[in-house]
């Protein structure tokens, strides 16, 4: 659907937010309307059905998607998520965000995203394997190291990447490790990739503190989500002295104004994996107060890191936020309405596609190593990652200060510029 000006209107929160932010920045840049039109649509969207024989013998058909928003700068890059709200439009919005993320990061990729609409928390390992393999086979025609390079996202990790890659390699008849990233270390993965998104987020926060002259040991933070992004962000921040006063996952939020021992939370989650999996249930026994999950937004602290789901900072919750600084670990955690409320309150928001770019930057390093057939040390990987994150943070910060715009607007303008310049250079017939 389009409005009277030919601008797209979607009925999905993530796509609408992505379009809203893109149009606003593009208009401020006076971007040519033709370029705006091109960049508001994905280049390609593939919808696949994914039939799976469940463990009880019945067959269920899941809906899967893979979207390539832009390949202007290089192969499209982005994760694959398994969640109930996955839809074609959600993937379109997330793929668009990946275009800006890769552009801003200065890495040679366009943006993509994929996923399957399913509830992975209620599926057995065998069911997930069959689903991943069938999905992999059905998107195989558009996947490749020089065309579209998937990676993990919500509820997927190294295991799902192995199933998908193994299936596509069997179809090809040869190894092709650079076709996707986020692989386990011993299966063409890169040491450092698992921690990369959290490390990148922490690097942004440290750079911010350095610029502002804040001492990390005097700062407090609350981290929403204790998965791959939030857990490592909390760990790295706390190792530098930041007091983590609250963490949360789908089981609730765990609060201690004197600081949570993050190393203990890691240990806790990794014990008895069969029983608890990677969940924090019962962690209140370790000296925390358990509060409802959403209440983590209202916890008194300096820095809030939403590292769980989209849309958590919205018009109903934005007013509750006490933190002055937000580092977005999740993709699209803030709605445009919430952004206005928070801007009015003087909150500094470090946008998702800057703050959580450590994951895809780490993926780029993995892909580069796969293409070279040569493994870097973890130290080299981490050093390059942190340097790139800090440089990118400063670039966005300086532009925002100079032009008196928000960090999100500044990040958008830099990201759109790089992509639109190349679209103009290459011409419309990409
Ligand atoms: N899923 C991650 C993201 O949203 C990583 C993507 C990638 O490494 O390609 O940034």
Structure characteristics:
Rossmann fold, 12 strands, alpha/beta, five-stranded mixed β-sheet, single chain, seven-stranded mixed β-sheet, 430 residues, 14 helices, binds glutamic acid
Could you please describe the fold and organization of this structure?
The structure is a single chain. This protein is of the alpha/beta class. Among the domains are: 42-179, Rossmann fold (3-Layer(aba) Sandwich), CATH 3.40.50; 196-308, 3-Layer(aba) Sandwich (Rossmann fold). The protein is 44% helix and 17% strand. It has 14 helices and twelve strands. The strands form two sheets. A seven-stranded mixed beta sheet has the order 9-8-7-6-10-11-12, with helices on both faces. Helix 6 packs across helix 7 (230-239). The relative contact order is 0.13. It binds glutamic acid. Glutamic acid binds at residues 77-79, 101, 151, 153, 181, 331, 356, 359-360, 363.
Quick structural summary:
The protein is α/β, with parallel strands linked by helices. The chain has 14 helices and twelve strands. Among the domains are: 42-179, 3-Layer(aba) Sandwich (Rossmann fold), CATH 3.40.50.10860; 196-308, Rossmann fold.
**N-to-C terminal Cα separation, in Å?**
24 Å
Tell me the helix content: 40-55%
CATH topology of the domain at 42-179: Rossmann fold
Report the structural category.
Answer: alpha/beta
User: DSSP helix count?
Assistant: 14
Tally the beta strands: 12
List SSEs in N-to-C order.
HHEEEHEHEHHEHEEHHEEEHEHHHH
Low-confidence segments? none
Global mean pLDDT: 96
CATH A-level architecture of the domain at 42-179:
3-Layer(aba) Sandwich
**Please, what is the CATH homologous superfamily of the domain at 42-179?**
Leucine Dehydrogenase, chain A, domain 1
CATH class of the domain at 42-179: Alpha Beta
Largest sheet properties: 7 strands, mixed
Named once each, the bound ligands are: glutamic acid
Shape: globular
Query: For the largest beta sheet, what order do the strands appear in spatially?
Result: 9-8-7-6-10-11-12
Q: Give the C-alpha Rg.
A: 21 Å
The fraction of residues assigned to DSSP E strands is 15-25%
């Amino acid at each position: 659907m389009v409005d009277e000006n030919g601008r797209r209107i979607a009925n999905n929160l993530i796509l609408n937010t992505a379009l809203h932010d893109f149009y606003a920045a593009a208009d401020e840049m006076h971007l040519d309307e033709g370029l705006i039109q091109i960049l508001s649509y994905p280049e390609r969207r593939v919808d696949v059905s994914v039939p799976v024989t469940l463990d009880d013998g019945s067959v269920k058909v899941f809906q899967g998607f893979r979207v390539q928003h832009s390949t202007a700068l290089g192969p499209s890059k982005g994760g694959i998520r398994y969640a109930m709200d996955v839809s074609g439009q959600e993937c379109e919005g997330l793929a668009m965000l990946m275009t800006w993320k890769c552009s801003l990061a200065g890495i040679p990729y366009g943006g993509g995203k994929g996923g399957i609409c399913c509830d992975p928390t209620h599926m057995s390992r065998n069911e997930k394997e069959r689903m991943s393999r069938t999905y992999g086979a059905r998107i195989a025609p558009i996947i490749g190291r020089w065309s579209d390079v998937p990676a993990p996202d919500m509820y997927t990790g190294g295991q799902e990447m192995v199933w998908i890659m193994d299936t596509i390699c069997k179809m090809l008849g040869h190894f092709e490790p650079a076709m996707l990233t986020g692989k386990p270390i011993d299966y063409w993965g890169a040491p450092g990739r698992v921690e990369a998104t959290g490390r990148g987020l922490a690097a942004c926060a440290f750079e911010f503190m350095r610029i502002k002259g804040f001492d990390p040991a005097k700062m407090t933070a609350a981290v929403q989500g204790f998965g791959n992004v939030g857990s490592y962000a909390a760990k790295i921040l706390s190792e530098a002295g930041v007091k983590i006063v609250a963490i949360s996952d789908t089981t609730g939020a765990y609060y201690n104004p004197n600081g949570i021992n993050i190393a203990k939370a890691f240990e806790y989650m990794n014990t008895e994996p069969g029983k608890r999996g990677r969940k924090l249930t019962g962690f209140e026994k370790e000296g925390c107060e358990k509060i409802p999950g959403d209440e983590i937004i209202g916890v008194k602290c300096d820095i809030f890191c939403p590292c769980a789901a989209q849309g958590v900072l919205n018009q109903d919750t934005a007013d509750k936020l006490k933190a002055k600084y937000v580092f977005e670990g999740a993709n699209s955690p803030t709605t445009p309405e919430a952004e206005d409320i928070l801007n009015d309150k003087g909150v500094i928001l470090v946008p998702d596609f800057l703050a959580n770019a450590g994951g895809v930057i780490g993926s780029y390093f993995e892909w580069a190593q796969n293409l070279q057939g040569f493994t870097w040390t973890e130290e080299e990987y981490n050093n390059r990652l942190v340097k790139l994150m800090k440089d990118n943070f400063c670039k966005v910060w300086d532009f925002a200060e100079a032009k008196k715009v928000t960090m999100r607007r500044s990040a958008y303008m830099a990201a759109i510029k790089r992509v639109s310049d190349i679209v103009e250079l290459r011409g419309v017939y990409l």
